[in-house]
Specification:
The complex is a heterodimer of chains A (409) and B (563). With 409 residues, chain A is of the alpha/beta class. Chain A is 37% helix and 29% strand. Chain A has 15 helices and 13 strands. The chains are: A alpha/beta (409), B alpha+beta (563). Chain A: Belongs to the GerABKC lipoprotein family.
C-alpha cells in the first residue's frame, strides 16, 4: 500500500519536471526593449523600430561614457501587421524581444496620419506589451528619436519617461498619455485626444554616438514640443506648446506651472508667478437663442517668483489689482488654447463630454456634428480667479526700491 | 540472604524502589503490557537525592544473584563482572567496629569523589568505636546489626543503602557509589560518593543573551536540576527521575510544576519516556527522536534549550521539561511554531524592542526560506515584476554567466552549506582559514570569474545571515532543508511553485501536534488573549494569563493591571 502511494506520488511529481522550465527564460536570453518607434513605409507597411537595451554597457560603473559602448541598439523590422513585424525580429536578433519593460512608444507623423487603431489593438490585446506604455508623436521618423542619447540617462527610453513625468509635474505644458489614456479618449463621445509630441531641436547634428557625450554640450536634443491632435484614430494637426498649456488649464489637468505676465502698458512679460490649479469647472448652459455657451470657472493660487512693476504688494488693493492682471493673462492663455482647438475642429477641451453629462438628451442630436460644425463655433465665457498666496520675501519690486532711495536723496 | 530481604531494606529508604527495575525488566521481556507495568510499577521516581534512587533502566538486569557471605568471593565476582577493568579500585581495610572482620571498599575511579571516600568512609571506618561487648559475636545476626550501625552512625556519606545482590552491587558501583563489602555478611553497603571531574557551570554557548542570566546547563543532571530548583523555589516543582538506556543507564528527569502543568500532559510525557527502550542515551537528542510527535517533518516538535532560565519560564507556563544526564540541553514540551522565534531575552528587554525583534526573526525565517526561490522565480519567469533599472542591472550581471539561475542558486547554496559545515567541524585553530577561503572563493573569485552573478552572491549571503537570526537552531535547520525544495519548485514553476509549496507547508504545519497541542496554536486554532505573547510581546503586567496549555483553572498567573 505504502509502495503504491509512493509510486503515485512519484508519478504525480514527474510531469512537474516536464512541464516546468518550459517557460523559463533566463535574464541573459532576453532582449529588453525600452522604447518602440512606429513608422510606415511608402507602401503602407508598418515599420517598427526597437530600442534594445544593452545591459552590460549600462551596468558598468558611471555613465555610458566609461565603457565606450552604446547603451542601446536600435533596429527596425517591417511587416503588414504590428505583431507580424515584431515576429520578424527573430531573423536579426539573437535574443527574444521582451516588451514588458517597454515604456515608450513613439509614433512617426506618417504613421500617425495613417491611423493608430492597429497600434492600440496590439497593445491592448497582448500581455507582454502593456497599455501603460507612454505614447508620443513625432514630426519626423520615430526611429530617429529612438537613436538619440539623452545626456543624463543611460537608457533613453526610460529617460523620455522621466522627461514627460517631470514636465507634467513641474512644467505643466504636457501631460503623459499612455496608450490606455489615448484609447479611452478616442473612444469617448468626442473621439479626440492630444498626444504629446517629441522631436529633435537644436543643431542638426544627431546625438547617436557615444562620442557625443565627450563634449560638454550636445547638438540635437530630444525635446517635448507641440501636441499631436488626434481625431478618430488619425493625426489631424499640431498645437503649439503655449496652446497646449492653455488647454491643460481648461481641462483641469494642470498641476503646477510658471506663468509670465507683464506690467500695465508693457510689452515684455517681465514678471512671473508659479501657479497651482485649484479648481476648474466647466458649466454648459443653453443660450436663449438655442445655442450653447460654455462657462469655464478656473481658480488658481500661486507664489510670486518675479515682480518688476510698481506697487506695494503689502497693500491689499495693489495685490488685488495684481491678481486680476494675472487672471487676465491666464484667461488669454486659456482662450488661445480653446481657439486653437476650435481651429482644428477637434474638441480637445472636453466640452463635449461635459455637455453630454449635463444634457444627455440634447447631446444625441449634437454628437454627429460636434467636432466639425458645433465646437468650432462654440461660445465660451471664461471666469478666472487667481489668488496670490505668497509674495516671496520682499514687498515692492527692487526697481521700486531703487527709485525710492533715489527720491530720498 | 534472599533477594527479598534486599528489597525490604531498600524499601525503607525514602521513595526507593530497589528491584522494580529488574522486575519490570522481566515484565518487558516477558509480557506485552510493558508500559502499563512501568507506569504502575513506578518506573519513574521522585528524585530525592543521589543516583541510587532513580530506578535502573528497564530490562537492564535479568537476574538477581545474592551476595555470598565471603568477601573474597563477592569481590571476585564483582571483579569478574567488570572483566578486571583497571578503573575498579578495591581497598582492603579494617574497622574497630568489626573486630577481626575484613572489609573491602570498592569503587570506580573517576566517577567518584576519592577525597570524599577517604574522609567520609575510610577515615570513619578506621576510627569507628568498637562495638559493645555483646555485639562481638561474629555470627550473622551480629554482623547485620553492626552493618546497620555502620550505615546509620559511622559512614557520613550522603546516602547509604544496603545491597544484597551482585547486580545491585554492580549498579551502585556504576552509579558512582562506593561499595563496602563486609566479610561474612551477605549484605554490603553502598554509599553515595558521586563525584569526579565535571565541567563547571558556564555560559550557554548556543543561546547567548545580552541581558539576562548568563549561566547554562552542564552535563551533570544534578547540577542542572539544582539550577532549576534555585530559580523555582517551590515544593510544587516536581522532579521525576528514571533511568533510560540498557547500557548507559542514563538518568532522565521529567520536571514539571504541579497544579500548573496539565496532568494529562505529564502523564503523556511519562508514558512516552517509559516506552523508550534503547541501549544508550548520550544526549537529550536521543530522547527527542523517541518522544517527538512526528518523525517525518522538517519542523521540531520539541524545543531544546541550554538555559535554566528559559526552562524555568516554560515550567511556570505549564510546560514539562525533560533533562537527561550528560546533556546540557533540556527538552521542553509542548511547543508551538511561534516559540521558536522567541528568545528568553524577549522577556528581559523592553517589550517594544522585544516585539520588534520577534517580527524581525519571523521575517528573517521567511526570507531564509524563500529568498533564493523568489530570486529564481523572478529572474526566470517573472521578469516583468522587477523595476526596469533592476532588471537591466541584474541582466547585465547575468551576461556571460554559464548556468541557469536555478543551477547557479543551487551551486551557491550548496557551497555555502559546505562552508558552514566546515566552519562548524573545523578545529578552532584553522577556523579563520574558512572565512578567508569562503569570502574569497564565493565572494569575489566566482563573480570575477563570471561563474555566478554578483546578485546571486548577495542573495545567498543574505539568506545565510537570515538563517542565523533564529534563536533556535532547530527551526533554522528546517528552513535550511526546505529552502532547497522551494528553490527547485521555483525553478520549475516560478511563483506558482512557491505558492503551491507554501500551501503544502501550511497544511502540513496545521496538521502537526506537539504533545497534543496544535503546532500553529494560538493562531490556528485561535486562542483568545494569547496574542499578547506570540508574535508580539506585550508588557509583562498585561499578560495575566498563562498560555492555554496550562491546567484548567490555573491560568491566571498574576493580578494583572498596570502597576
Amino acid at each position: 500500500m505504502r509502495r503504491l502511494a509512493a509510486l503515485a506520488l512519484l508519478l504525480a511529481l514527474l510531469p512537474l519536471g516536464a512541464a516546468g522550465c518550459w517557460d523559463r527564460q533566463e535574464l541573459n536570453e532576453l532582449g529588453i526593449i525600452s522604447a518602440t518607434g512606429v513608422d510606415v513605409t511608402e507602401s503602407g507597411r508598418w515599420k517598427l523600430s526597437y530600442q534594445l537595451v544593452i545591459p552590460s554597457a549600462i551596468s558598468a560603473q558611471g555613465s555610458y561614457v566609461g565603457t565606450g559602448h552604446a547603451p542601446v541598439n536600435v533596429f527596425t523590422t517591417e511587416g503588414d501587421s504590428f505583431r507580424g513585424a515584431v515576429s520578424k525580429a527573430t531573423q536579426e536578433m539573437s535574443r527574444r524581444l521582451y516588451f514588458a519593460h517597454n515604456q515608450v512608444v513613439i509614433v512617426g507623423e506618417a504613421a500617425a496620419r495613417k491611423g493608430i487603431a492597429e497600434l492600440i489593438e496590439a497593445y491592448m490585446r497582448n500581455g507582454d506589451s502593456r497599455e501603460t506604455v507612454m505614447m508620443f508623436v513625432t514630426e519626423g521618423s520615430a526611429r530617429l528619436v529612438l537613436e538619440q542619447l539623452l545626456p543624463m540617462e543611460k537608457i533613453s527610453g526610460a529617460g523620455i519617461v522621466r522627461l514627460i513625468t517631470q514636465e507634467e509635474k513641474q512644467g505643466g505644458n504636457f501631460r503623459q498619455m499612455t496608450v490606455f489614456d489615448v484609447a479611452q479618449e478616442l473612444l469617448s463621445p468626442i473621439r479626440t485626444t492630444g498626444v504629446p509630441g517629441i522631436g529633435l531641436s537644436g543643431s542638426d547634428e544627431p546625438v547617436d554616438t557615444v562620442d557625443a557625450a565627450k563634449m560638454t554640450h550636445t547638438g540635437a536634443k530630444v525635446r517635448l514640443q507641440k501636441l499631436g491632435v488626434f481625431k478618430e484614430d488619425r493625426l489631424v494637426g499640431w498645437l503649439s506648446t503655449h496652446e497646449t498649456r492653455g488647454l491643460m488649464w481648461v481641462k483641469g489637468k494642470e498641476r503646477e506651472t510658471t506663468v509670465s505676465f507683464g506690467c500695465p502698458d508693457a510689452r515684455l512679460k517681465r514678471n512671473s508667478i508659479r501657479l497651482k490649479q485649484v479648481r476648474t469647472q466647466v458649466i454648459p448652459t443653453r443660450k436663449p437663442d438655442g445655442g450653447w455657451l460654455m462657462r469655464v470657472k478656473a481658480e488658481a493660487a500661486g507664489t510670486l517668483l518675479e515682480y518688476n512693476c510698481k506697487g506695494a504688494l503689502d497693500k491689499p488693493a495693489d495685490l488685488l489689482e495684481l491678481e486680476l492682471r494675472i487672471a487676465q493673462e491666464l484667461k488669454s492663455d486659456m482662450e488661445d488654447g480653446i481657439k486653437a482647438s476650435q481651429r482644428l475642429g477637434t474638441d480637445l477641451t472636453g466640452f463635449g463630454n461635459e455637455l453630454r453629462l449635463r444634457y444627455p438628451k440634447e447631446w444625441k442630436a449634437l454628437e454627429q456634428e460636434w467636432n466639425d460644425r458645433l465646437f468650432p463655433q462654440l461660445e465660451t465665457q471664461l471666469d478666472v480667479a487667481v489668488s496670490i498666496v505668497r509674495t516671496g520675501r520682499s514687498n515692492g519690486s527692487y526697481e521700486q526700491a531703487a527709485e525710492d532711495s533715489r527720491g530720498k536723496e | 540472604m534472599e533477594s527479598g530481604g534486599g528489597n525490604k531494606t531498600a524499601g525503607s529508604g525514602p521513595g526507593a524502589s530497589d528491584g522494580t527495575g529488574a522486575g519490570s525488566g522481566g515484565a518487558r521481556s516477558g509480557a506485552g503490557d510493558t508500559s502499563a507495568a512501568d507506569r504502575s510499577g513506578g518506573g519513574a521516581e521522585k528524585r530525592t537525592g543521589g543516583p541510587l534512587k532513580a530506578a535502573p533502566s528497564p530490562g537492564r538486569r535479568k537476574s538477581a544473584t545474592p551476595l555470598s557471605a565471603s568477601l573474597a568471593a563477592n569481590a571476585q565476582a564483582i571483579r569478574r563482572q567488570f572483566g578486571d577493568s583497571a578503573d575498579l579500585r578495591l581497598r582492603m581495610t579494617e574497622s574497630p567496629a568489626f573486630p577481626g572482620v575484613r572489609l573491602a571498599v570498592l569503587y570506580l575511579q573517576g566517577i567518584v569523589d576519592e577525597n570524599g571516600i577517604r574522609e567520609s568512609i575510610l577515615d570513619k571506618l578506621q576510627s569507628a568505636p568498637p562495638p559493645a561487648e555483646e555485639g562481638r559475636r561474629a555470627d550473622r545476626g551480629g554482623l547485620a546489626e553492626a552493618t546497620e550501625r555502620l550505615r546509620a552512625g559511622v559512614i557520613t556519606a550522603g546516602l547509604t543503602e544496603p545491597v544484597a545482590t551482585i547486580e545491585k552491587a554492580l549498579d551502585s558501583l556504576l552509579l558512582g557509589c562506593c561499595l563496602i563489602l563486609i566479610d561474612g555478611s551477605g549484605t554490603a553497603l553502598a554509599a553515595d560518593a558521586d563525584g569526579g571531574e565535571r565541567r563547571p557551570v558556564g555560559e550557554p554557548i548556543s543561546q547567548t543573551v545580552i541581558r539576562g542570566p548568563q549561566q547554562g546547563f552542564t552535563e551533570s543532571i544534578g547540577t542542572n536540576l539544582g539550577q532549576l530548583r534555585r530559580i523555582i523555589r517551590s515544593e510544587r516543582l516536581i522532579v521525576e527521575s528514571r533511568r533510560i538506556g540498557r547500557q548507559t543507564c542514563t538518568e532522565v528527569a521529567l520536571v514539571y510544576l504541579k497544579d500548573t502543568a496539565r496532568p494529562e500532559l505529564v502523564e503523556e510525557a511519562r508514558r512516552r519516556l517509559a516506552a523508550i527502550d534503547v541501549d544508550g542515551v548520550i544526549d537529550s537528542g536521543y530522547l527527542e527522536e523517541y518522544i517527538q510527535d512526528k518523525t517525518f517533518t522538517f519542523f521540531p516538535t520539541l524545543l531544546n534549550t541550554e538555559r535554566p532560565d528559559q526552562t524555568a519560564a516554560y515550567l511556570l507556563e505549564g510546560h514539562v521539561a525533560i533533562l537527561s544526564d550528560g546533556s546540557p540541553f533540556a527538552l521542553l514540551a509542548p511547543v508551538t511554531l511561534y516559540r521558536f522565534f522567541q528568545s528568553p531575552e524577549d522577556y528581559y528587554q523592553r517589550f517594544d524592542i522585544a516585539s520588534f525583534l520577534r517580527l524581525i526573526r519571523m521575517g528573517a525565517f521567511l526570507i531564509s526560506l524563500h529568498l533564493p526561490a523568489l530570486y529564481i522565480a523572478i529572474t526566470t519567469f517573472h521578469q516583468e515584476m522587477m523595476p526596469t533599472n533592476l532588471l537591466i542591472s541584474l541582466s547585465a550581471q547575468r551576461e556571460g554567466v554559464p548556468f541557469p539561475a536555478l543551477v547557479e542558486a543551487l551551486l551557491m547554496e550548496l557551497t555555502f552549506e559546505v562552508l558552514r559545515e566546515a566552519g562548524v567541524r573545523m578545529p578552532r585553530a584553522i577556523g579563520p582559514a574558512i572565512s578567508i577561503v569562503g569570502a574569497l572563493v564565493i565572494g569575489t573569485a566566482t563573480v570575477q570569474a563570471g561563474l555566478v552573478s554578483a546578485a546571486m552572491v548577495i542573495i545567498v549571503a543574505f539568506t545565510a545571515i537570515s538563517s542565523f537570526v533564529a534563536p533556535q537552531v532547530n527551526i533554522a535547520n528546517a528552513a535550511r532543508l526546505m529552502r532547497f525544495l522551494f528553490m527547485l519548485s521555483a525553478g520549475v514553476l516560478g511563483f506558482v511553485g512557491i505558492i503551491s509549496l507554501d500551501l503544502i507547508l501550511i497544511i502540513h504545519l496545521a496538521g502537526l501536534h506537539s504533545f497534543g497541542i496544535p503546532y500553529l496554536a494560538p493562531m490556528a486554532p485561535w486562542v483568545k488573549g494569547s496574542w499578547r505573547d506570540t508574535i508580539l510581546r506585550m508588557p509583562r503586567w498585561s499578560m495575566t494569563l498563562r498560555p492555554a496549555l496550562a491546567r484548567k483553572g490555573s491560568r491566571k498567573r498574576q493580578a494583572g493591571g498596570k502597576p
